[in-house]
Amino acid sequence: MKRRSFLKNSLITTGLMGAGYPLFANGKPEMYKLTILHTNDVHSRIDPFPMDDKKFPGMGGAAKRAQIVQQIRKEEKQVLLLDAGDIFQGTPYFNFYGGELEFKLMSAMKYDACTIGNHDFDGGIDGLKKQLTHADFQMLVSNYDFKDTVMSGKTKPYQVFQKGGLKVGVLGVGIELLGLVPSNMYGDTQYLDPIENANKYAKILKYDEQCDYVICLSHLGLKYNEGNPKVSDVRLAALSENIDLILGGHTHTFLDEPLTLKNRVGKNVLVNQVGWAGIILGRLDIYFERNFKNKCVSCKNILVKK
Predict the structure, then answer these.
(1) In the prediction, which pLDDT does 21 show?
(2) Residue 46 phi, psi dihedral angles, 5° rounding
(3) 248-277 exposure pattern, b = at least 16 Cβ within 10 A, e = fewer
(4) For residue range 248-266, what is the model confidence (pLDDT) as tens digits?
(5) What is the full DSSP assignment across 221-286?
């Protein structure tokens, strides 16, 4: 499909064309493009699944993912690579190396940021602190207060990335640990309200940092049954105001394409999650008009396979 036709169809899909927003000036496209790659719940799956696996034969694997990421970086100028938590636990690699290998491989792939999943405490809070020395990327979480723990100062609530002419803000939120993780594993970590803190830092990113796009890395889970009090990505989206995209984890949900939901002021929020084990590399291409006010989105989640 020609570029102009593709963009036109993307605009129709997101409703922007119907709203009458122009994309072209003087017959030429004038836009910025941001490519967002993401994973979640990789769970120490360094190797691909064996070829005789009944569900995922030959799928996944850090080496193949690295190859795909490298190729995309050759093709695209502005790329963000993000992870939504549960990096650890699930194979003997974690049992033997405690997370060192996972962080070293992510650093080699040049991940930009991640958030924390509940299983990232499986080596204890001291183990997490120790392994972070191997991470050449930022761990983001806005609703865990680590001030009375060894993790104090080791995370940030958010980070701003300059991608060409774009300012992209990324924040993180984690799931409630009580009842999910043994208390000795997370020590004196204080859990804060994820919706309140996501909104707090999204507002800072939007107005104080003047970001053009705000991403929330979430390990809350996509959604839960009616009546379940757990905070989910669907609930967060509905009660948010300045978040453009939620990249989720925890529930191991395979989405063919992002959900488009409405926030509390009626604006669109995208929510994406790509299952688990590194089987899928999430890909979103965001096209911005030169004034950054309007954007369209293309989703091209990629199967990671030999």
Answers:
(1) 35
(2) -75, -45
(3) bbbbbbebeebbebebeeeebbbbbbbbbb
(4) 999 999 999 999 999 999 9
(5) -S---TT-----HHHHHHH-SS--EEE--SS--B-SS-EEEE-TTS-EEEEE-B-STTSEEEEEEE
Q: What is the pLDDT of residue 31?
A: 81
pTM of the model: 0.90
What residues contact 302, with CB distance under 8 A and at least 6 apart? 68, 280, 281, 282, 283
Query: Average pLDDT in the 43-61 region?
Result: 97
Question: Helix, strand or coil for residue 166?
Answer: strand
> What domains lie within the chain, and their CATH numbers?
3-303 (3.60.21.10)
The strand ranges marked E within 70-212 are 79-83, 113-114, 138-139, 144-145, 158-163, 166-173, 190-191
* CB proximity list for 193: less than 8 A, separation 6 or greater: 143
| Contact predicate 280/254, CB 8 Å | yes
- pLDDT tens by residue, 106-125: 999 999 999 999 999 999 99
